[in-house]
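Task: complex structure prediction.
Instruction: return structure tokens for all chains below.
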Amino acid sequence: MKRNAILVHALLIIGGVVTLFPLLWMVSASFMSNGESVTWPPHLVPHAATLDQYRALFVRLNIGRAFFSSTVIAVVTTLFSLFFNSMAGYAFAKLRFRGRERMFGLLLTALIIPAQVGMLPLFLMMKSMHLVNTYWGVIAPSLASVFGIFLIRQFMLSIPQELLEAARIDGAGELRIYWSVVMPLARPILATLAIFTFMTTWNDFMWPLIVLSSDAHYTLPVAIASLSAEHAVDVELMMAGSVLTVLPVLLLFLFLQRYYIAGLMVGSVKG
Amino acid sequence: MKPETRAAALFLTPALVVLIVFFFIPVIAGFALSVTDFDLYSIGDIHNLRFIGLHNYATVVRNDVFWTAFFNTLYFSIVGGPLTVATSLAAALLVNAKVARWKAIFRTIYFAPVVTTLVAVAMVFRFLYHPRFGVINLLLAKVGLPQADWLGDPRFAMPAIVLFAVWKNFGYNMIIFIAGLQNIPEDLYEAARIDGAGAWRQFRHITLPMLGPTFLFVGIVTAIGYLQLFAEPYVMTHGGPVNKTLSAVMLMYQQGFKWWRMGYAAAIAFLLFLVIGAATVLQMQLQERRR
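Output:
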């Protein structure tokens, strides 16, 4: 039994080191001076830690602009999706109307349709609406999501119907019931949805790459992918860019992982 | 109209408008696009657009590059998918082991790559795989194993991307597996132990069968995700060397958004959709038969 415990922990620690190493190396290399990570034998930690790479990113390459774009897009998308998805999820869970189950089932089938199928027409549509190379072009398609509606609906199914009926008898209107009775109860799942949406939007690559055409609007992932074309050899600089991109979502996850993992579970219950 | 119906209409409208306008209509339009010759000339003047039936599909399936991209994508999914799921299950078993301590810490560490930005960590791995200065070759040299030009050698480029994808994604399925493991009633193991079943037989005859629905879920989610391979080769290899890591979505992106052959690209996207649908149905039937 004792040997078993040692083996399990040895494997857990090896797995942990392998998992963490790339992230630690990224951070370490981002504090190195130019060319230090490509010396032989390679350094794993900087000789003399420096902020040169970050300074270059902000001062010379104006990465702050991409940081700003990413933040605006992720925050606005998150706020809207909280409203739109919670309203729809509430209707599917608690309001009775004809064709409800069939409509919801139809929405769920959308989960197996790859987004790329619609991307070509979507781009042409954005072009005709003059939304190419704007924040709204990135944001608009994510204002609501099938997954978000599903997440909210599953949670709200457990809100007792009597609570809503009681509010109706007291003369509360439907909007009021949604806003003052349902939404306060839904806070944990709203937190989950907010983190999910923020992270997905922040990390998204393909659609922003397609719809944004100038670096004035690039999000961080698009900006560093485009930087890497010119600065492929500047390892330390690219690592600083990666740290800037990854750090916000990683911190968000570390502090709010309880909500994030709860969301994963809801998603997997029904399959 | 009943007030409840009216309220439902009000609450559903914003989300449904977004989904219909920005998802369902584009998907249907995507199919329509695939039976036209939409290209740069049609962007200039829509009157140049012609209906050409299944001509794009015929051109696609006669194109060697398409089949290269198609088989690369299948390779990535068929090798990478099961490898990821197996790693996830192993991690879940370890974290969930009765003797294991600091479970929450290990779970957080293993999950961390999932929340990182794909483009950023792909950049990290591009340097870890560097033939001369990459840490991976350095370690291989230390233990006396042969080194490789991971992303530059046609034989190793796709396996290298597969390993990166396993690192990036195994934590997601691990969480689902942990939930599945915790749902298995403890008395099943109790009874098996009384009957003298060892660890392996308990795993083989209790854990694996009881995880059936979980396998179906992670299998489908992983397959759908992996068949859409794009950012990894885009950042790490640009589809090279010699198209060895060119994926179906990448080909669609190049044809559609670089050369503006949008009708042709839409046909590629639709073929991919069919493959994803087929992979989903296939896994559901496999699971059905096992019951």
